Amino acid sequence: MKIIRCAIYAIVVAFVLPLIGLDAVAHAQSAAGNGAPAAPAGSKQKLIIRFTWKLKGEYAPLFVALDKGYYAAEGLDVDLAEGSGAETVVKMIGLGTEKIGYGPATVVGEAINRGLPVEIVAVYQPAVPMGLASFPDVPLKTPKDMEGRTLGVSIGETFANLLEPFAEINNVDLSRVKVVQMSSSARATQFIARKLDIASLYLTNELPLFEKTAGVKFNMISISDFGLKVLGASFLVNDDFARSNPETIRKLLRATAKGYLDAKTDYKGATDIMDKYMTLKIDHDVLERQVRATMESAPEPADKPVGWQDDAEWKSNLELLKRTGLIKDVKDSHVYYTNEYLR
């Protein structure tokens, strides 16, 4: 029991504390500089990038670009700021309260169909790195293994919203699956305490942390390997801001591409940089696994700039969103995204 209590405490610390008032700290640390020579006062354009969640290893490429001075070299004074959920952030961007966000591209499909003036200007993950995990003694090789089990999912997460089509694609009888929706922190503690048989999780963030806490290697399947491929990490922008500041967006994407390429070729270096900016410290080995998994989920497009978006993938994603009922109608794909700022 003592071991379980310690494991639960570790998970709660990792998932609950980041939710409590850390945004100001993130602002201060992300703006703290990178050792690059300072430019004359007032010469750089201030730019806030709002993440859709709290700081985690997945954001390493942007912090590499910040730390190495790539944004500054483009004349940008970038502030990398924490967020409180994709739906909240995309709404703020649509209303113009925020100008640029960084998070899953899928949310823009829903936002556009609600009339919000937002669009995606770069996508770095062709598939959201989500999966299902179980302890070694709970068989999990295909989605059918969910039947007869208790599945824990987070409220509002991508997989929870797409569970029904995932089950349909894979011939899973959901009437035989006990699905429990809860907060991310509750799902974490319940899974580690063995109150859930299977849990959905992000392979680039939660899987390394969960395995470290539990001290075991989980059985795991990726949802993208079983027909559920939805676009992941991206830059989402306010339409009016992008049209009024096209060169600013181009500078941002150029500098970020350098951060991605550096992180991909040097996981350890990217991990060391990310560790400097983490408001809640985690085990360095776990952070490195998060960074490595993130870069493996972001393949460099052949003969295209980093962040280039494929029209066929967008159309497939939009049809999936319509199928789930998250959007009613599919508009022309170019309403949702543009590669214009990557040219």
SSE map:
Layout: H1 2-16, H2 23-30, E1 45-51, H3 60-67, H4 70-73, E2 76-81, H5 86-95, E3 100-104, H6 106-113, E4 118-123, E5 130-134, E6 150-154, H7 158-161, H8 163-169, E7 178-182, H9 184-192, E8 198-202, H10 206-214, E9 219-222, E10 233-238, H11 239-244, H12 246-265, H13 267-277, H14 284-296, H15 311-324
Parallel strand pairs: 1-2, 1-3, 6-7, 6-8
Antiparallel strand pairs: 3-10, 4-10, 5-8, 5-9
Helix pairs in contact: 1-9, 1-10, 3-12, 3-13, 10-14, 12-13, 13-14
Describe this structure in words.
The chain contains 15 helices and ten strands. It is α/β, with parallel strands linked by helices and about 350 residues long. The protein folds into two domains: about 30-125 and about 230-340, Periplasmic binding protein-like II (D-Maltodextrin-Binding Protein, domain 2); about 130-225, 3-Layer(aba) Sandwich (D-Maltodextrin-Binding Protein, domain 2). The strands form two sheets. A five-stranded mixed β-sheet has the order 2-1-3-10-4, with helices on both faces. The protein has a five-stranded mixed β-sheet with strand order 7-6-8-5-9. Helix 10 (about 205-215) runs antiparallel to helix 14, helix 12 (about 245-265) packs across helix 13 and helix 13 packs across helix 14 (about 285-295).
